[in-house]
């Protein structure tokens, strides 16, 4: 009997990673992010039909869809994404869940643990192996998202605009971005998807490791995540702390140092949840 064909999505604000599972090696595809807070049903349909389907083998029939994404803690957003998926694949069974559940299943499998996302945004939870039991409230990129790309990128811009970088870093910043105060404020306060824009400046940190100001931003920003989120779970001292996302991956040395400093048990660090989600759903 042929295996059921499954389509798995891990969607953030910036991009969506898709995996096609069946009687073959997983097919991996990428599209822009699906964010129901900022996009309409028409926008989501366009991503599916214009960006995703042309990458897949012609005539692919999907039996099951598992979509994990940002902004899916509210029922109206879950319904929007569900309706779009069903409109494109009407015969498929569709399961839409928030990205934190995807991260928990990818990182913890079916065992208890603390699962954290450090990407464009940030989030965390205590997962008992089946359900998310505790979730420290996320406040988004304006009030929260400590340790995320947007949070760290905002710090970079603050240092630049307040002229807190030394001469060397100011020169490197100007050469890389060729921007100015007016353009930055326009993108942050007037244009859509400011969180994505802020997050792009976090790459400046990875490219300038070793400079004491860069290390200060990274250590302070990631420590803010530990203090405001991971410290709130008493399970953090008794079960493994797992991390996923681009920020977690690129700055995992600091995460490991903080876990050692606070005597917290470190677990897996995955660049994206997809590797773990393929294992979880490949049965």
Automatic annotation (TrEMBL):
The keyword Kinase applies. This is N-acetylglucosamine kinase. One of its GO terms (molecular function) is kinase activity. The keyword Aminoacyl-tRNA synthetase does not apply. It comes from Chitinophaga qingshengii. InterPro entries: ATPase_NBD, Euk-type_GlcNAc_Kinase. Keywords: Kinase, Transferase. PANTHER family: N-ACETYL-D-GLUCOSAMINE KINASE (PTHR43190:SF3). SUPFAM superfamilies: Actin-like ATPase domain.
